[in-house]
Amino acid sequence: MTTTPVALHQTRRLPSWAPWAVLAVSLAVAAAILGIGGTPTVAGVVFLGAIIHVVAVVAVSWQVEGPRWAKDRLATTLVTLAFVLAMIPLVSLVWTVVSGGVRTFSWEFLTTDMVGVFGQMTEGGAYHAIIGTLYVTGIAAVISIPLGIFTAIYLVEYGGGRLKRAITILVDVMTGIPSIVAGLFAFTVFLVLFGPAYKSALIGGIALAVLMTPVVVRSVEEMLRLVPNELREAAYALGVPKWLTIVKVVLRTAIAGITTGVMISIARVIGETAPLLITVGITNAVNYDAFDGRIATLPVYVFRQYAQGGASEYRAWAGALTLILIVMLLNLAARLVSRYFSPKGVR
Q: Are 294 and 287 in contact (CB under 8 A)?
């Protein structure tokens, strides 16, 4: 008995360069249309070209590939456009900060303070503000990270009933607290305890901890919920206590996500200005004592320098660039930590 081979229908596909060719033609058509009424702008050409590109690439795909692949092309194009739109403000922000700060950013800027710098002098740096930022953010991290992780562990592994619901509601409310309210809270607490003259990095750290803790709780809670229950049950079946299962299995499995959530919370508070204006103020000299005296921080330093204008504005951009670099270094350190401590199967 012989079987007649059946020729399978081969769907025609557009070459890989076709969407790019359609995009180039769309931009050219958009420039021609806008050029009729005057000189076209880059933003106008890109906006109109994107619309023409979406319509054109779907129409061409419909004719060549069929309706199924045309719908796929439409979804792919819209997702790509959404990504490009999301990247525009990010790239614009980074470019603005780098172009403005690179003129003043140097090793001397990182290792000098503002003592003896007056008016529109071009000297001076942000060393004192860097030290203050590390102090304040470090205090906030020391308070928030353990508190947030333990709270998330309780909510996921132990909590139940009214107490769990109350903590969840409180965390949700704290997530939306304005930063100025956190600053006023910390200032009021220390005003009652030590009087109005007391200023220190400790007050600023507590203010930032109020903002940082709910972010840590929420991110760690979500990461712990992603750990499969089968891993917990396997540990329990081997006779491992619950606390040791959490430490050795649950936390080790979710360490990469927990580290990312902690870094997001640090990035959330390291640039806060309003609470630090109230709690720690500003100074021109380095203060190595985190528990006594005013201390400068990079957000407040940038605010004050930009408000002065003139040559001080360049120092403001350099301070903003320094702040971004600190966040990048912290993220790099977090990546290394999560890579080192994560189980081999999830690295």
A: yes
Please tell me the distance from the alpha carbon of residue 82 to that of residue 80, in angstroms, as a whole number. 5
Which is it for the CA torsion 308, 311, 317, 320, positive or negative? negative
* pLDDT for the residue numbered 137: 93
The residue among 143, 178, 85 whose CA lies nearest residue 290 is: 143
- Token pair in block for residue 62: 């419909």
Q: Is the distance from CB of 205 to CB of 280 less than 8 angstroms?
A: no
With 0-12 / 13-18 / 19 or more C-beta atoms within 10 angstroms meaning exposed / middle / buried, residue 77 is: buried
Tokens linked to 237: 């079946």
Q: Where are the domains of the chain?
A: 18-101, 127-346
- Phi–psi pair at 289, nearest 5 degrees: -95, 115
More confidently predicted of 197 and 68 = 68
Token pair in block for residue 226: 């992603």
Residue with tokens 């990270």: 145
**11 pLDDT tier (thresholds 50, 70, 90):** low
| Span 116-143, average pLDDT | 85
Under 8 Å between Cβ of 324 and 97: yes
Looking at 2.40.50.90, 3.30.420.270, 1.10.3720.10, 3.65.10.10, the CATH number of the domain 127-346 comes to 1.10.3720.10
What secondary structure, in 3-state letters, does 149-212 show?
A: HHHHHHHHHHCCHHHHHHHHHHHHHHHCCCHHHHHHHHHHHHHHHHCCCCCCHHHHHHHHHHHH
Task: Count CA atoms within 13 Å of residue 235 on its CB side.
Answer: 16
Of all residues in the chain, the percent with pLDDT exceeding 90 is 22
Q: Tell me, what amino acid is at 222? A: E
What angle is formed at CA 213 by the lines to CA 167 and CA 248, rounded to 5 degrees?
85
Which residue matches tokens 């972010």? 215
Whether the Cβ atoms of residue 30 and residue 52 lie closer than 8 Å to each other:
yes
